[in-house]
Write a structure and sequence with these properties.
two-stranded antiparallel ribbon, RhoGAP_dom, mainly alpha, C1-like_sf, Wheat Germ Agglutinin (Isolectin 2), domain 1, 5 strands, three-stranded antiparallel beta sheet, 267 residues, single chain, RGAP1 protein, Phosphatidylinositol 3-kinase, Chain A
């Protein structure tokens, strides 16, 4: 429900195209979700508008729980929408998640999705699927702490280091269950997705390739400012953690998100 056009006093990015609305220009603001946009972008605005409570206005940065919905499975809409789009048209692309998308577009779309909060603009208009992959990776990398959390980081590394596979699996399952609910559900959702990618012959992205890409993104370091030595030592171990997580059976991951999977399909 747009209100009559208003004059912009402070330059702000348009909720649809992401570029700035300059001082003194006219813009349109939605009464329900407070989305601000250029008058010319009104046509492309997502028609279904979700009233934005203060709780659901997404921050520019935060921990994963800050972006998660209030009902399970606790997977942020941005993650669900990127994964759904990638599975719809990306599983025949070579080098999925390894081939970079155009950086400027990745940044623009990430900003656009974060500004939209729960009411996301459709990603089907993004021609290059590698841009969608880039948005997902950039969102996960930009969290204030990695998905496995700072406090559980050492436990994940230790569990993945256990030489006996069965013992390592048991330890990893235990550590996964200790994650905050939003982190655990999102990790489960991502693991099921990455298993699909690894099984697609066209993608040529096996578990080893995917763990190299997602090790730094999902596991990260045990603090916000790691030393150069920690960075060097962590890198191979991060990949090992993701590879071990991907070796756990899909039924384990479905236990967290499977029952409510139908809630995850974006409307």
């Amino acid at each position: 429900d747009p209100i009559p056009p208003l004059q912009v006093i402070r330059p702000e990015p348009c909720g649809v195209c992401g570029s700035r609305i300059r001082f003194g220009k006219t813009a349109i603001k939605c009464c329900q979700c407070q989305l601000l946009l250029h008058t010319k972008c009104q046509e492309q605005c997502p028609s279904l508008c979700i009233p934005r409570s203060h709780h659901h206005t997404w921050p520019c940065e935060g921990v994963l729980a800050d972006f998660a919905p209030s009902t399970p499975p606790l997977v942020p809409t941005l993650v669900v929408q990127c994964v759904t789009e990638v599975e719809a048209r990306g599983l025949t692309e070579t080098g999925l998640y390894r081939v970079p998308g155009m950086e400027q577009l990745v940044r623009e779309w990430k900003r656009k999705l974060l500004r939209a909060g729960g009411a996301l603009p459709a990603l089907s208009s993004v021609t290059d699927i590698h841009v969608v992959c880039g948005v997902l990776k950039d969102f996960l990398r930009g969290l204030k702490e990695p998905l496995v959390t700072f406090s559980l980081h050492p436990a994940f590394l230790r569990a993945a280091d256990i030489p006996d596979d069965a013992a390592s699996d048991t330890a990893l399952r235990h550590v996964v269950s200790k994650l905050p609910p939003a982190n655990r559900d999102t990790l489960a959702f991502l693991m099921l997705h990455l298993l699909k990618v690894s099984h697609s012959p066209d993608c040529k992205m096996d578990v080893l390739n995917l763990s190299r890409v997602f090790g730094p993104t999902l596991v990260g370091h045990s603090s916000a400012n790691p030393t150069p030595l920690a960075i060097m030592e962590d890198t191979p171990r991060q990949c090992k953690v993701v590879a071990r997580l991907l070796s756990l059976p899909p039924s384990f991951w479905r236990g967290f998100v499977g029952t409510e999977q139908e809630n995850l399909v974006p409307m």
